[in-house]
Amino acid sequence: MRVTSVAVVGAGFGGVGAAAMLRRAGYDDVTVFEKGERVGGVWHHNTYPGAACDVPSHLYEFSFAPNPDWSRRYAPQAEIQAYLERVAAEHGILDKIRLSTEVLSASWSESENRWRLRTSVGEHEADVLLTACGQLSVPSIPPIPGEFAGPAFHTAQWRHDVAVEGKRVAVIGTGCSAIQTVPAIQPIVSQLDVYQRSAGWTFPRMDFAYSERTKRLLRRFPALQRLDRASIFAFHELGAAAMTDKPWLLPFFREFGRLQIKRAVKDPELRRKVTPTDVVGCKRVMVTDDWYPALTQPNVSLITDAVELFTPAGVRTRDGSERPADVVVFATGFATHGFVAPMEITGAGGRTLAEEWREVPRAYLGLTVPGFPNMFLIYGPNTNGGTGSVIYTIEAGINHVLAALRTLDAARARTIEVRREAFEAFDRRLRDALSGTVWHTGCTSWYVDENGNDPNQWPWLWREYRRETERIAPGAYTLSAA
Q1: Beta bridge partners of 115
Q2: CA-to-CA distance for 237 and 255, rounded, in angstroms?
Q3: pTM surpassing 0.85?
Q4: Could you tell me whether strands 415-418 and 202-203 are parallel, antiparallel, or unpaired per DSSP bridges?
Q5: Contact in structure between 346 and 356 (CB atoms under 8 Å)
Q6: How far apart are CA 328 and CA 12, in angstroms?
Q7: Does residue 382 come out as left (phi exceeding 0), alpha (psi in the -120 to 50 range) or beta?
Q8: What is the spatial distance between Cα 423 and Cα 393, in angstroms, rounded to a whole number?
Q9: How does pLDDT run across 259-275, given as a tens digit for each residue?
Q10: Where are the alpha helices (DSSP H) in 297-419?
Q11: From edge to edge, which strands make up the β-sheet containing 191-195?
């Protein structure tokens, strides 16, 4: 096997998974760059109260590193980070990770057929570049006018030096982080004002703690964990089918969501506010057991009037009302269409990835882009979904990288690059399939941009993604020995 050096940007699930799978395949010359001071990516940075996964633990793990010791059905943030650190240690890649090192730019050298990286601590070169930056890593804060005098921060940048006990807290947003944060802090704050732009569909989480007996059984009989993982995956595939090419399944999921609201919320006005009007799945479906019960508590107000501006003392809505606050929390999501931001990537001929993606981010199988040889995007464009586990997707993408490296080795080639024709043909097929999915039924979501383009979602089942990525399709790539 020819020695191939690989540079990986990011040490979350994508980066750790890539380094571990590369090492398992015999590629040892791997360097992982992580701007944070610890391994974990979003699971290092997101430490807000109640932070946890919204995919059951046995599916939110690498298939090659099952963990029978999760404490709960839905793992909390600290456990997920610890799992990633343990995977890195057990697979011998901790010494390959350069922490507190941000990659500022990467450029392709056509004379040397290598990638040159400029980092916050120096230069680095590698034959192959893998970006594992994640889709949801850059916090998004809406440009609301005015200036609030107290502490204000995003959930992904939670200020643990700010005590919220006994305070009046304003939470802007009702998405995935809000439905975890609000129930966690509701019992300790004096007043909690939750500002909702539009209601989202939720399903019961049905979370529970794993007993020590269950953990012992899982350790002794690993097949039980694999069976549980398979059953979870099958249910998520059913949801994926409903959101893509089998919309006749959607009424079942809609009634499931309505039943949860009906059981938890008795007040007619509050029930009206929290009942979505969009097609189920058009926006991110959330899983929760305690969101609606928290909203019914006497110290919680759900406000649906649009936020107009901040005042030094609180929040003013469009109806002219001003509500006092001691702390403002932005639960407003992330910049979702950058994929490699703020890193600048320059490919062949001096063309940047930003220029290639001027209209919309696109990639063949979400992984490769013409004009950017030996570069692979882990969790790139159109590899997200309304259901499923991103870890499954990441593994499938890395398997494609390994197939590409084996192809390079077999041909004794130096570079591999997706053909423009294959790239365009895949993109046409993808856009045509997306047009018939639930994400294009008219709602406003982070999946779709202001021009109606969807650079995020995969419009088929996830087993189809694994099938398409497990090999290099004939004619999809061009190889060069130069």
Answers
A1: 108, 126
A2: 19
A3: yes
A4: unpaired
A5: no
A6: 28
A7: left
A8: 19
A9: 999 999 999 999 999 99
A10: 353-356, 390-411
A11: 152-154, 327-330, 168-172, 191-195, 300-303
